[in-house]
Amino acid sequence: MIAKTITGNDFTGALEYGAGLRSDRTNKQSELLSVANIGSQDAHQIAAEMQAVASMSSRIQQPVWHTVLSWAPGEQVSREQKLKAAALYCELMGASLERHQVAVYEHKDKEHPHVHIYINRVPMDGGPALDTSQNYARNVKATLKIREQLGLQQLPERRHTTNDLDPGKQVTRGYVREVLIAALADPRINSLEKLLTHLRDKEIEATLKRDAKGVLVGSSFRYQETSVKGTDVGIKAKQLRDHFSPFGREALRTAAPVRPGAAGPTQASGMTPGASQAGPLLSFEEDGGQGGGTDDAEQNENTSRRRRRRRRL
Length: 313
Known about the structure:
Blueprint: E1 2-8, H1 11-18, E2 30-36, H2 43-54, E3 64-70, H3 79-92, E4 102-107, E5 114-120, H4 135-150, H5 167-184, H6 192-201, E6 205-210, E7 216-223, E8 226-229, H7 237-244, H8 264-268, E9 282-286, H9 296-312
Helix pairs in contact: 1-2, 3-4
């Protein structure tokens, strides 16, 4: 089970899509499952009621909260389970059903069961609006709790290849994903460096790929002699950037790179890879980057200086 969230400012457009009324993307298999604090079942009227409440706050420019909850293809999910999952999701994300307007639609145009949850971020009592910070990590944490309480699967199944079916890769992929999900849901891990330290403690070697400007563009992870890409575990480099960016530029900095094999002698002596003496299990692949021992921010600054010197000449 996964959740994806976007925010916006157009209740009418959002609810038209939920109800299958968009002329460009007609979805005749849409069904309204439930509403909270709304008197109508018509999409346009629902949008109007939400907009009326949202207009009470001039400060909130994007009052529309739209989340898609998805289950695995072929997974049997009852209507009651979908309703409970949607209600529990709202509560876990801070949208109390006693204070917020909510509309839930089910779409049946895909192989996997999924529902669209529309929340008015502005509460009816005039209190603080629903917080949108760290949506990715909060979604991960919320879906884990929903899965545990309702006994649902965590992720939609993906197309399998021969490599996917390798037992070692399956173990590594599952372990790495569990560690990453727990780490991103931990408020104490608020920087990329702290995440890498946490992975090291869990005996996971992280390989981060950056472009010439030092921007994180790829990731892979190695556990028990088996490597998997970030895309294999469902957490891409962009998601890591988006997760840590709100904490500031420092949160995206990392320590000096350690090339693969640097920890070999320590491991040969019988020490645990996560021990502090072994150093960070981290390696970098630089696209056009230069020099070792400097982090991505320093390399960006050095590149800018060189360019300024060339212009003077």
